[in-house]
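Structure tokens please, single chain.
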Amino acid sequence: MGVWIWKESLATKMVLIAVLILVLLCQSVSSAHSINCTIYDDPLPIFHEFYQPGDLVIGEIVSHIFLLHDSPSFRELPTEKLIDERFSVPKHYQNILALVFAVKEINENPSILPNITLGFHVLSGYYLAKITYKATLSLLSTHNKFIPNFRCDTQKKLIAVIGSRLTEIYASMATTLTNYKIPQFTYESFTPAHGDKILFPSMYEMVPSEVFQYMGVIQLLHHFNWTWIGLLAVDDDNGDKFLQTAMPLLSRNRICYDFILRTPKRTDTDDLIDQLLNLMEKYPVLVNSKANACFIYGLSTSMYTLRMLLGIAQESSLPPLSKVWIITSQWVFESVSLQRVWDTQIFHGAISFTVHSSQPPGFQNFLQLIKPSWAKGDGFIQDFWEQAFDCSFKHSDEREESKKPCTGEEQLESLPGTLFEMSMTGQSYNVYNAAHAVAHVLHALYTLHFKSRAPVQQREWRLQNLEPWQLHHFLRSIPFNNSAGDTVSFDEHGELRAGFDVTNWVTFSNNSFARVKVGRLDPQAPPRDTLILHEDQIVWHRSFNQVVPHSLCNDPCHPGYRKEKKEGEKFCCYNCAPCPEGMISDHKDMDACIKCSKDRYPNKGQNECFPRTLSFLSFKEDLGIIFTVMALSFSVSTSLVLATFMKHQDTPIVKANNRNLSYLLLISLLFCFLCSLLFIGQPGKLTCLLRQTAFGIIFSVALSSVLAKTITVVLAFMATKPGSRARKWLGKRMANSLVLSCTSVQSSFCTLWLSTSPPSPHADTNSLNGIIILECNEGSAVMFYIVLGYMGFLAIVSFTVAFLARKLPDSFNEAKFITFSMLVFCSVWLCFVPTYLSTKGKYMVAVEIFSILASSAGLLVCIFSPKCYIIVLRPKLNVREHIIKRNN
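Here you go.
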């Protein structure tokens, strides 16, 4: 969309606008027609009326229903008003016809008010408050005598009033009629801009509250993610009230407005030109704004001036507008007479919340019978006919001579929809239902009287005896079904229980249009189902190529990014910043990035959470299988060694260096191999408690046994010297005491560990991306390294003693074998510490398993393999004589 700037001077703009208005007016008539703005000086009647009496069965005449019509006949304007007749709205005439049709339908229905003919009275208010006020007072006066609040006849009695919305024009009427408790029906939205609804207890709304419409608009904007919109409101009290309500509501729902334009209210031609001049200066705001969605509020009369503004822009070759117009229910897609040939394509694809309406059977057939001479009491039809068909009945007025004559045979269905519709509009449907509501209440009162009175008293009851206040109880409590099949009822606040239709307006080049119902706004539905929208049925403005338009301050932030506020701008305008590491945003325009749940991790684009894989050393994987096979193989080997020693327990090699210590060492090595299996498989509470403690205690037993063996070798050598006191230390008691004391220290450490901070299962989600490491949390790292350090201490002591005793003269000196075994043991565990600390997950467990198996295997091989070699393969060497011979 291009950028257009209005640069002309004020004088140039005024001349240009005036010329454009004249051009537009000339386009609406033929070249032979003249354009007149005339001041009428002749005495005029106070109001234009349509009167049809209703005859009671006893012959009396009564008019029960009064319709205040808000589209005047401009042939009979007050003298102080300066407006051309081409500003009249033919389409409003359908509201009158809806009332006529409803009364006709009621009178022809024998089940409603039998033997009573209902009548009506229609007056026009000319959009002037004083005229409307005077019309209201005349209804409270004697017929044909304007004496307010004084009635000297009982032939006419006002029962109900059907009027337009509560504006400054009709506020005086509502206030006056409220004093008499006369039921008043509004066929447009109720806007309490002039006071609280409590001030008008006799008011009945045929349209649900505007608050529901606003909430529907909010839901619509959220549905399409339109957060940057434009606001257009009529420049009057109702527009002020709308802005006061809508602006905070939009802000609370995270929606911003880019601009606010006030459209002119109903005014005369001179003021209209001035207002259009002011509005044209703001036209670049509409063109240059990024807001493709515009929320419009105002009376239907506001649409004329908006269309005039857009028409002037179009004729001036200014940049066109491509907007989605969101319209409230009080707007009616209509035209004044001069706009009959104006292009309506600018509103193609508009979305409005229209009053729910159905089509009563027979209404279109009724419209086809309408002719200028159809009713003698209709003071509106000739004006309507002239404005709708751009013709003239024979008048002495010179300004009518330039028009073609009206034949009276013109067809209403030939008119474009902006001037007249053959289907019943929402406003007309409300008038129709209001008339039926009054008729059903009168019928209920009529039936109640005849059921509760004696037959002699029944004939004395007349409708003239009714008081208007008697209708209110029944209006709020009696629902009824109209001929269209809809249920009509009011709540305790006098509001109609109904919803809105979401309507998509599709316009055509011949100024006709189609209403496409694309959804429903139901205030009574659950919150999630309040707005039902069929997006695939919506037709957008042609410039959008049938793609859902965007209405944003800036491009949305894609997943993986978050919104970052722009300083000094509204919250709907923002920058896009990438999510921090470890966090994601999985939707557009997220305010903040979020963390994945513990069982998921962010992908590379940081826009999705993937399920994490569980990582632990399983018995089913290759590494787990290898370690399992190794542990079982070494366990079997240890068992075979133990069996071999027990079988040859009386041989010198087995007896050498304390046979019981050998058995204890082999058994502890067997358990060392088996305890490595506790580290394989998914960690559980029990396995976590047993892993390190069992490993620490069992290894302490093994190392204590090795230490005891080494000390036994030293003591045995020392005891061979004459007079040595070491002989008394030899024996099982010393070895057992040493093993028991060393093991008890380690057991104390483990008991303290389990009682203060025991190991427990833990799921590590932070160490590796995309992986949940199932491990045992050691609880206290200090206690873990104390247990490990104590085993290292025992190993170092054993290595030192064995190293010093390795060269002692003995045929079967185990010291040198223990030296090699302790060298292997210490080497393995010295390498274990840095490797253990540098690995994660199951590989950390694998390092510990390997260290357990390697160090245990080192002890088994280095200490017992030489003895097993002699016992199994060289049994001749395992005899006492050979040992004595070697010693000698």
